[in-house]
């Protein structure tokens, strides 16, 4: 394994690249009236319209409160519309509008631009290697998130009481 200084420098670089990507995406998507996190919503709805807020949040792996705010903005901008579920009026279903459908090709073009801008100096082999390495990093972080979620559940204020009760104290 590399030294802790190497790992710290790599972590700083990783964060720096993430910030640069975030800023570049925000700048590009702003040109078509979208916020950075909204294109994935459009993509999911292009694949399957009529999803509820909670279904969208689950598919996108974001919090329901986040998707609600995002959908409010997208509705106001005319990219999506919400309709009450005929079977349950409490549930709102989300659909693309004509504007939401029309912007899809522009979004795909902007994503291609981001890829060109970010990876243009890499060879195809380097892109493949980078993809493999980042996939491993993502898997490590996903596994750590699961471990830490379990660990944090053990740190709840009532956890020691439960542990003592299980031991018969």
Walk me through the topology.
Layout: H1 4-30, H2 39-47, E1 51-52, H3 53-60, H4 64-76, E2 80-85, E3 88-96, H5 98-102, H6 104-119, H7 124-154, H8 159-167
Antiparallel strand pairs: 1-3, 2-3
Helix pairs in contact: 1-6, 3-4
Quick structural summary:
With 169 residues, the chain is mostly helical.
End-to-end gap = 44 Å
Q: What are the secondary-structure elements, in order, as H or E?
A: HHEHHEEHHHH
The unreliable regions are 159-169
Report the CATH superfamily of the largest domain.
Winged helix-like DNA-binding domain superfamily/Winged helix DNA-binding domain
How many helical elements? 8
In CATH, the topology of the largest domain is named Arc Repressor Mutant, subunit A
- Please indicate the count of domains: 2
Word description of this protein:
This protein is mostly helical and about 170 residues long. Helices cover about 70% and strands about 10% of the residues. The chain has 2 domains: about 5-120, Arc Repressor Mutant, subunit A (Orthogonal Bundle); about 120-169. The protein has helices spanning about 5-30, 40-45, 55-60, 65-75, 100, 105-120, 125-155, 160-165, and strands at about 50, 80-85, 90-95. A 3-stranded antiparallel beta sheet has the order 1-3-2. Residues about 160-169 have low confidence and may be disordered.
Write a concise keyword list for the protein shown above:
169 residues; mainly alpha; Arc Repressor Mutant, subunit A; 3 strands
């Amino acid at each position: 394994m590399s030294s802790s200084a190497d790992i710290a420098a790599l972590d700083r670089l990783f964060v720096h690249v993430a910030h640069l990507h975030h800023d570049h995406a925000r700048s590009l998507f702003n040109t078509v009236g979208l916020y950075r996190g909204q294109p994935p919503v459009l993509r999911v709805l292009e694949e399957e319209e009529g999803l509820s807020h909670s279904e969208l949040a689950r598919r996108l792996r974001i919090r329901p409160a986040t998707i609600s705010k995002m959908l409010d903005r997208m509705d106001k901008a005319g990219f999506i519309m919400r309709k009450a579920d005929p079977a349950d009026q409490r549930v709102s279903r989300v659909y693309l509008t004509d504007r939401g459908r029309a912007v899809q090709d522009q979004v795909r073009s902007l994503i291609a631009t981001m890829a060109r801008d970010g990876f243009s100096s890499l060879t195809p082999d380097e892109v493949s290697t980078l993809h493999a390495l980042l996939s491993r990093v993502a898997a490590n972080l996903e596994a750590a998130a699961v471990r830490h979620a379990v660990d944090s559940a053990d740190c709840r204020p009532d956890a020691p009481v439960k542990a003592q009760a299980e031991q018969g104290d």
